[in-house]
From TrEMBL:
It is found in: Membrane. This is Energy-coupling factor transport system permease protein. PANTHER family: PROTEIN ABCI12, CHLOROPLASTIC (PTHR33514:SF13). The chain crosses the membrane at residues 38-66, 78-99, 236-262.
Length: 263
């Protein structure tokens, strides 16, 4: 099995980091086709929309968490990338607790469901090589080449944006733009850096779009340098995802805790 992938680069300019070859058997999630992982994450997201109780989403979240050690993603990377989703889950739970109709149970259900929907997509992204993601989108999911190449470019540019954010921060610090202990100043400087990063992102995106047009992306059928392989394990992943959703709903219904959004 090939080496696993991570979201950090040894040189800081790529999204991937090779895991030692002897860890290939352990990090089996990285050996699956990215298209299969994205389909599984999408199935979980759609499948959990009707269930607003904590048990259904909790079962799915628990099983997904069990796959984290096999994704090749270290704890620090998972914490950094999953932090915003965790904050969103807590915020959703707080809002539902204060203004919802189901009290604490509804709040926990909303938070758990959001995390159960977000985590599979996060694992699918960080455990896949961006180039293989693009190949899987085009060859397996029949996504048009232009948006697929856009996804590839976006994944490849994430580390670049991180470097640009650090550069903007250091440049402003060199000009004496410091917030000190003023919280309002911190917010103001943050949005100033965010706007500068947005401007740079637009410029970079314009250059990429021009380069793609010059290479005639999206104008006709193209050949592929790599073949996106679909293996039996990919089919098993989708089957296991379906069984997981059915099992989660069945367990929740048996316990009498199932609450449907449209019920």
């Amino acid at each position: 099995m090939r080496a696993a992938h991570d979201t950090r680069g040894t040189s800081g300019d790529t999204l991937t980091l090779d895991v030692p070859e002897d860890g290939g058997a352990r990090y089996w999630l990285t050996g699956l086709n990215p298209a299969a992982k994205l389909l599984a994450a999408l199935a979980i997201g759609i499948g959990l929309i009707p269930a607003v109780d904590a048990v259904t989403g909790g079962v799915v979240l628990f099983v997904v968490l069990l796959t984290v050690p096999f994704s090749g993603v270290d704890r620090r990377t998972l914490l950094v990338l999953g932090g915003p989703f965790l904050l969103m889950g807590l915020s959703s739970g707080a809002v539902n607790y204060l203004y919802g109709e189901h009290g604490l149970e509804g709040a926990v259900g909303a938070a758990v469901r959001l995390l159960a929907i977000a985590l599979p997509g996060l694992l699918a992204a960080v455990s896949s090589d961006p180039t293989e993601v693009s190949d899987g989108l085009v060859q397996r999911l029949r996504v048009p080449e232009r948006p697929a190449m856009g996804v590839l470019a976006a994944l490849r540019l994430i580390p670049l944006l991180a470097d640009q954010w650090r550069t903007i921060t250091l440049a402003r610090r060199a000009r004496g733009l410091e917030a000190g202990r003023n919280p309002f100043r911190i917010v103001s400087l943050f949005f100033g850096r965010l706007f500068a990063l947005l401007v740079r992102s637009i410029r970079t995106g314009t250059l990429l779009a021009t380069a793609m047009d010059a290479r005639a992306f999206g104008t006709g059928k193209r050949t592929h340098a790599r073949y996106s392989h679909w293996r039996g394990a990919d089919t098993l992943l989708l089957a296991g995802t379906a069984l997981l959703l059915v099992g989660a709903y069945a367990l929740s219904a048996r316990l009498g805790t199932l609450v449907l959004l449209f019920g």
